[in-house]
Amino acid sequence: MEFLQDSVILSAAGDALGLILQPERIMFLWLGVIVGLAIGLLPGVGGLTGFAILVPFTYTMDPYSAFAMLLGMAAVTTTSDTIPAVLFGAAAQATVLDGLPMTKRGEAGRALSASYLANMMGGLIGAIILAVSLPVVRPFVLAIATPELLAMTILGIAMVATLSGKSPLKGLVVACFGILVGMVGTDTQTGQMRWTGGLLYLQDGLPMLPILLGLFALPELCDLAIQRTSIAQDMKFSPRQGMLQGIKDVARNWFLVLRCSSLGAVLGAIPGMTGSVVDWIAYGHALQTEKGAKESFTKGDVRGVIAPESANNARDGGSLVPMLAFGVPGGAAQAILLGALMVHGFTPGPDMLTKNLDLTYSMVWSIALANIFGAGTCFLLSGQFARISTLRYTLVLPIIMSIVYVGAFQGSRSWGDMYVLLIFGLIGWSMKRLRWPRPPLILGLVLGALIERYMSISFLRYGMDWALRPGVMVLLACAALIMFSPVLRLLRKENRAGVVLRRRPYLGLDDLAYGLFIAIGVYVLVTSRDWLFNARIGPVVVASTMVIAGGLSLIHKTFFKEVRAAATNGVHMDIGGDPEEELPRRLVLVRAARFYGWFVLFLLSMAVIGLLPTVPLVIMAFMRIEGREPWRLSAILAASVTLLLYIVFHRIIHVPWPTSLMGDWFPILREVVPSM
Amino acid sequence: MKIMRGIVLSGLAVVTASAIAAPAYPQTAEEFYKGKTLTILVSAQSGSLTDFIARQFAQAYVKHIPGQPEAVVMNVVGAGGMVAAASLQSKQPKDGTVIGFLQRNNLYVPLVDPSQNAFDPREVAWIGSVDKTYYSLVAMTRSGVTTADDLFQKELVVGATGFSNENRTLPAVLNQYLGTKLTVVPGYTDRGEVYLAMERGEVDGWASTLDGLTYGEPKRMLAEDSMKVLLNLGWDSPEEFQDIPNLSQYVTDPEAKSILDFFILPFQAGRPLAAPKEVPQDRIDALRKAFDETVQDPEFIKAMTDQNYAVDPISGDEVAEIVATLFATPETELEAVRKILKP
C-alpha cells in the first residue's frame, strides 16, 4: 500500500517536472527570479511587496506559469540580500557576524560564493524535505498544538544563552530588553495598551524593520564613517579563486549544510517563525556543534556564513507546508499566494495533496529551480560584487545610507519609523561599542511576542496541564539544557580559576549601560502596576529577570576581574568580535556625532522638502563635504539613486509619503515633485 | 545647460501659472478629474482580502468617475484602520483627489474610546459601502454543541484573533447578555490559525463572517458536517443559512437588544468609503454617483464573485445615517459597550 502511495507521488513529481519545463513557464520562472533578486537588494522591500506587485499579472496566466513566477520571486529574495549583509554589514542577519569580518580581510568573494552555494543547497534541501513530507505532513502538523509551539519558541529563545558568547548575563539582559520592546502596543489578550503614550503609531507595536536596520545597519555605517576607509583594503582572491574557495568551503561542510537546511525547513513550517530569527537559530546551532566554533566564530569563520544562509532558503520550502496542507497562510505574503491559488480555482487544503498533486509538485520544483537560477546567477557574479567592498567610503556610504533610510520608512510608512531608526541606531551603536551582544535582542524581539501569545492561549485553554504534554516536556528539557549549559561551564573549576576578586571595587563610565537597562526594568515594573493581571504578568516576569541579571552582572564586573585570556569562555558575540581599532576615543565620538548629524540633517530636510527630494541633496552634500568628490560624479550618483528609489517606491509600490512643509505651503509643488 | 535651464524655467512658469489660474474659473468635476490621479487609501495590509477588494473596486470605480482619473491604491496600515481614517480627515489633500477605503470599526470606535479621537466619522463625506457583513457562530460537531440551544447548556471553547476584533467582542456580548457558556480564547493571528486550532481540537468554534464560510476549508467542513452553523449573529438569517436561528429568537430584554444593535448596526457598512468633507460638493456628488454605478457594474460584480465575494452595497447617505444613529446612543449604553470593548 505504502509502495503504491510512493509511486503515485513519484509520478506526480515527474509529471510536475514535465509541466514546469515548458519554455514559457521557465521564462516566467526566470522573470520571477530576476524580480526577486532585485527586491532582495533593497531593505524594506520583501517578498510581500514582490507578491503584491506580481500577483495582478498572474490572473491571466496559466496556473503553473503563475506560481512558477511567484515562487521564483519569493524563493530568491533571501539569496541576494546577502550582498548588503556581507559587504557592508547593513542587515540584521546572522551572516553579518562572520561575513563582514571576512570582507574586511579581503575575502568577500569567498564569503559571497560560499553563501550563495549554501543558499542553493539550502533551497534544494528545503524543497526535497517539502516534497517528501507533504503527503504525510497533515497528521504531523495537527499534532502540534499551541503548547508545543510555545515550547518550540522557548527552545528558540534558549539559544540566547549560546548567542551571548562569553557574557551570558549581559545576553539575558539584552534578550529581556528585546522582549519588552516587542511588548509595546496593544496586548492581544486583554486589549491593554502598553507604553503607547496615546500614540496611534505605537498601538500595533513597534515595526520590526526600522528596529533591525537601526540596530545592525546604522552602527556598521557609522563605524565606516569613523574609520574613513574602504571596507576592505585589498582583495585576497581573484574572482575565480574566491568562487573556487567558496565551493570548497561548502563541500567540506556538507553535513552542516544538511543540518541547518533541515532545521530551517522545520522551523519554517511553524507559523510566526519569520526569516529574521531562523538564521540566528541556525547560527547558534552551528556555534554549539561545530568544532572550534567557540573560538573562531564572529572572527570571519566561513561556517558562520554557511549555516545561516542554508537555513534561510530552506525555510521557504517549509513555510509552504501549512498553506498547502491546510490552506493556512503563514503570514501576509502567503495570504496573497493563497488568494492567487483561489483565483485560479484551486482550493488550498487536502485537495492540494490528492487531486491537485501535480500543481503542488510543480510549486516544489519551482522553488528548487529558482534556487538554482538565483543562487547560480549570484554565484557567477560574486567575484564582481566583491569588488564593491574596495570602493571609497565616500561613494558607498551616502548611497547605502539613503537606501537604509527609505527602507526603514517602509516599516509602517510613518514619521515614527524614522525616529525608531534613529533611536535604535544610537542604541545599536552604543551596544556595539560598549560590547553588549546584539543578537539576543533580535531573538527576544521576535520570539518574545510569540511566547506571550502562545502562553496566553495555552493557559486559557489548558490551564497548567499544557506543560504536561509529552512533546512539550521533551522540548522544554532541551531548552533547559541549552539555557544552562553556559552556567554549568562557568561553574566548572578550571573556568572559575580564571576569575579573581578585585582589590577594590571598580566602576567605569561604560557601566552606565547597566544602569540604563536596570532603570528600564524598574520603569516597566512601576508603570505596569495598574494594568490587568494578564497584561502585566509577562512584562513583570521579563523586567524582573532583566533587573536581576543586570544586577548580578554588574556586581560581578565591579568586584571580580578576569585574569586569563577570554578564549576559554567563548567569543564576544557581535560584529568586530575583538576590535583592533586605534583611533582615540574623542575622535571616534566626534565622527559618530557627525554621522548621526547627517541623519538628523536628512530628517530635517525631509520635513521641509519631502523624502525623495532630500535623497539627492544629502548624497551630493555628503560626497562634496565629507569626500571632496567631484561635482560630476556626485551628481551622477545622486541622480541614479534617486531615480531608483523613485521608480521602485513611488511608481511601483505607491508609497504614501509623509507631507512636507514646502508641500503644505505650496500645494501645487506636491503635484510636480513626488513625496513633497 | 542653458537650454535645459530654459526648459525647466518655462516648465515652472507654466505650472505656476496654471496653479494661480486654476481656481479662477469654475471647473466641472470632469474637468477636474481629467488627467489626475485618484488616490485610494486602504486601511489594510497589501495582500489582504480588503486590499484585494479595494484594488478591484478602484479599477472599476475610476471608469465611472467623470474625466476618468487614474487609480492608485495606497496601503496605510495601523491601529485598526484608525491611522488611515485620521490621515484622510486631517492630512490628505481636500480637493477630491484622495479618498479612503475604511473599516467599519472606524464608525464607532472613536465614540466609545476617547483616546481614538483622531478621526471623527461625522466629519467626513461618506461615499458608500461595498458590502454588508454578517457573522455566524460555528462549532465543530465533535464538541457536542450542535444547536443554538446547546450554547446555553454546554460549554464551548471558541477561538478569536485580536481583543478588539468582532470575532472576540460578539461572543463576549453573547455571554454577557444572552447567557451563553462560551470560553473565548483570543490571540490567534488570523482566521487560518483559528481553523487549524479547530481541526486539531484546541478550540471548538468561533464567530466567522458569512463570506468566510463560503469557500475553502470551512465550506468543506460544513459540507461534510464536521462543522455546523449554530446561530446567525444578526436580527434575521441570511439566505445561505435560512433555517438556522438568529438573535431575534433569543433576545427579548430591551437593554440587551440595544447593546447588540450597537455592535451589529455597523455591519451594514461593511467596507465604507469616505472623502474629506471639505471636497467641493459637485465632486462629492460625482464620487457618490460613480460609486452607485460601480456597484452595479457587471464586470466588477463578476470579478468579486470569482473570489467568492458578494457585493452588497449601501449608499453614502445610508452610511451617514448609521453614523448618526450610533452617535445618538445614550451614555449609559455606551458605558456597557465600553465594558465589552475595553478591559
Describe the structure.
The complex is a heterodimer of chains A (about 675) and B (about 350). Chain A is mostly helical and about 675 residues long. Chain A folds into three domains: about 1-225 and about 240-490, no CATH class; about 495-565; about 585-670, no CATH class. Chain A contains 31 helices and four strands. Chain A has helices spanning about 1-20, 25-40, 45-60, 65-80, 80-90, 95-105, 110-135, 135-145, 145-165, 170-185, 200-205, 210-225, 240-250, 255-270, 275-290, 295, 305-325, 330-345, 355-385, 395-410, 415-435, 440-460, 470-490, 495, 510-525, 535-560, 585-610, 610-625, 630-650, 660-665, 665-670, and strands at about 185, 195, 500, 560. Chain A has a two-stranded antiparallel ribbon. In chain A, a hairpin with a 6-residue loop joins strand 1 (about 185) and strand 2 (about 195). The termini of chain A are far apart. Chain B contains 14 helices and eleven strands. In chain B, strand 6 (about 155-160), helix 7 and strand 7 form a beta-alpha-beta unit. In chain B, helix 3 (about 50-65) runs antiparallel to helix 12 (about 300-305) and helix 10 (about 255-265) crosses helix 14 (about 330-340). Residues about 1-20 of chain B have low confidence and may be disordered. Chains A and B meet through helix 3, helix 8, helix 11, helix 18 and helix 22 of A and helix 1, helix 3, strand 2, helix 4 and helix 8 of B.
